[in-house]
Amino acid sequence: MKFIDEATIQVQAGKGGDGVASFRREKFIPKGGPDGGDGGSGGSIYAIADRNLNTLIDYRFARIYRAKNGQNGRGSDCYGKSAKEIELRMPVGTVVKNINTGEVVADLTRHQQKVLLAKGGAGGLGNLHFKSSTNRTPRQFTFGEAGQECELKLELKVLADVGLLGMPNAGKSTLIRAVSAARPKVADYPFTTLKPNLGVVRIDHNRSFVMADIPGLIEGAAEGAGLGHRFLRHLSRTRLLLHLIDMAPFDETVDTMHEAKALIDELRKYDAALHAKPRWLILNKVDMLSENQRKSVCRAFVEKLGWTDRYFILSALTGDGCQQMTYAVMDYLEQHQSQTSD
Fold first, then answer.
1. What are the Cα distances from residue 49, in Å, to 27, 87, 333, 338?
2. Helix or strand or coil: residue 250?
3. Are both 331 and 249 inside the same structural domain?
4. How does pLDDT run across 62-95, given as a tens digit for each residue?
5. Helices (H) then strands (E): counts for the chain
6. Domain with 33 in it
7. Is the full-model pTM beyond 0.85?
8. Which of 12, 120, 301, 327 would disulfide-bridge 149, Cβ 3.0–4.6 Å?
């Protein structure tokens, strides 16, 4: 199924049914009095989080959702029937925003979470509500209220504990394959990852975390270049970012230091909050370096970059150093369990 992480829809709740002015008229009851019933409520529209969904593709094709109106009231104290509500099932991680106001209407983070998107109109009152000792033949009634209507933007943000950042071909897909059961495409050309991939990294029976791999970033991503800028939102819920660096680029003209700094700069331009998240440096593809080069080259790179946080030296292809890194990540996440993601 094609991965769709954005959609725009229009929702219109149902109008409430009108009340009615009616009087009881029976042969042997000359003063029957008012008996007009109320109108039924219009149908409301709700969003429901469903962990079995992973795309918003259904909302690319069906964009308008209208609930039915409530039935009008009738005589003989008969109330109109309320309309059924509409439930729109969306993937866990979907954020629903009102396009006109920018307000976040719903943030679906739990399976079966239910949030009101548009409330149906209340039904009108029949004339039986207006009877009194001084008004025995009321002819007043009220019309049903209109249902809420709005245009909404749906944005899917995958739910992951750890996010992978890196230029194309930095080895993100290879790493997630090495440490989890996820099987993203891996090839020797850029942009093999065209959609976010999730993998569960299992440390032991009761310890695991979710890792997200997004398409590679390039310089200018914050201004719309490449593919990664479309998917940076998926990292906003993560608690830790792993910044992958290719220590043995196939093209000798590639300036690894410049790319590392450019990626950090793109992150800052895109979202200051995302840039402020904890980030660890992962120096990948060290299997392409000799044993004597690995420590010296990597240490020199870290010092020149001015990196002060944790860093790991590994090879996602051979698996060397991956276990040490995943155990450190698990320990970090457990120690910072109380922190909540945006």
1. 57, 10, 25, 23
2. coil
3. yes
4. 899 999 999 999 888 889 999 999 999 998 889 9
5. 6, 14
6. 1-156
7. no
8. 12
